[in-house]
Input
Amino acid sequence: MDYFKQSLALHKKLKGKLEIRSKVAIKNKKDLSLAYTPGVAEACRFIAKNKSAVFDYTIKSNSVAVVTDGSAVLGLGDIGPEAAMPVMEGKAILFKEFADVDAYPICLATQDTEEIIKTIKLISTGFGGINLEDISAPRCFEIEERLKKELDIPVMHDDQHGTAIVVLAALINALRAVKKDAGKIKVVVSGAGAAAMAVTNLLISYGVRGGNIVMVDSKGIINRERKDLNPYKKKMALATNCKNIRGGLKEAVFGADVFIGVSAPDILKPEWISQMSDNPIVFAMANPNPEISLADAKKTKIKIFGTGRSDYPNQINNVLAFPGIFRGALDARAKSITEKMKIASALAIAGLVSKKELSPDYIIPNPFDKRVARAVASAVRKVA
Output
């Protein structure tokens, strides 16, 4: 099946995947007078006296803006806001289908950090949450950090934190399966972009020792001797790699229990796997082609293998996280997405795989498992 060709035809036929439907039927003067003028003026007066009432009298309480500048879309790169629109529409569909959240694609024709921050702040009145999407690093870090400080509604860059939450959920169960302790494992993170940094930070928050994590970018292992690191990588150099080892990916994976790839295809060589510890865990999430293919992985001693692909076992897909996180945050009227919420979400996802079900080919629920968003939302509400 040619998904590309069929998807293109579908988009042209539908002229977009979203539409707005009214909750109110307008069939007569009374209907019009209640939904619009003159009756609507009373809702306006009420909110004017108590601005927090906007959550109870408008769509704000169930609305999320999906905001991009089109600078880092899927594996396509900087394709611009117009070309990013189909992805943002798709994201909005997932919000609705999995968590009944009304999400709206907002594609900004600027890549200026200050303009993006200002624009999102100006439109935030109409939304209960902001989902940042496909914004390139390192700008995405500052944009998220600033908005979290300057807005009183949840802001989350899903490429970072949605990915990190699902990776942690998968790792929790993978460690259960191989009977290893999170506090004692050595982890290699291949990649040093937004997702890689969020994964690393969340693993540390969960209990993986930062000194036992080695991060590798395109130029090699991140260590304290390198002079070419941006401020975010410098921070990682201080928080990870306690032995300050040098070299490339081959040297990094020596003795590692876990490999987490958010980087590039085919960079983890099968012959290197023999250097890893017993029962190694490999999450190769480069899309569409992972850091090591399933065929090559099967020829090695890898015990548990996960990717971002739906046609392989153990799909590590952030759709397991973001709908439920925003559902829970909106319900709780949370003002931010906290580390506690992220860890609670990961534990909720992992907890849906029973001890009886747990196996090397089943460490994480299927993205279509209807229990996931409800479980995540409940976990978020409890710690909000």
Remarks:
- Residues 158-178 form the longest helix (21 residues).
- The chain has a mean pLDDT of 95.
- The beta strands are 63-68, 102-107, 129-132, 155-157, 187-190, 213-217, 220-221, 258-261, 281-284, 304-307.
